[in-house]
Amino acid sequence: MNPFVCPVCGGNGLVNQGFYTQTSGQWGTATTAPEKCRTCGGTGIVWGAATYSLWPFKSEEGEK
């Protein structure tokens, strides 16, 4: 398994407080105090196998 930067927190290990809270179909937060990222557990790194590649990419016209 390979380490990857957490796609949720961008490798910071923190997200804005209220990031995981949703009420009435709208995302809301009262403060911007950081909260530990639940995806990576605050480490900023997730472990796993790559499931896709960003490069080289394929466009609608064909491969580039």
Give a written overview of the molecule.
- This protein is an all-beta fold and 64 residues long.
- The chain has one domain.
- Helix content is 0%, strand content 34%.
- The protein is built from no helices and eight strands.
- The chain has a two-stranded antiparallel ribbon with strand order 1-6.
- It is extended, with a radius of gyration of 16 Å.
- The two termini are 29 Å apart.
- The relative contact order is 0.29.
- The model has no long low-confidence stretch (mean pLDDT 76).
Strand order of the largest sheet: 1-6
Instruction: Please state the structural category.
Output: mainly beta
- The proportion of strand residues reads 25-35%
What's the multimeric state? single chain
* Total separate domains: 1
**Main β-sheet description:** 2 strands, antiparallel
Structure summary, number of beta strands: 8
Question: How would you spell out the order of helices and strands?
Answer: EEEEEEEE
Tell me the helix content: under 10%
Low-confidence stretches: none
How many alpha or pi helices? 0
Distance between the termini: 29 Å
**Whole-number average pLDDT?**
76
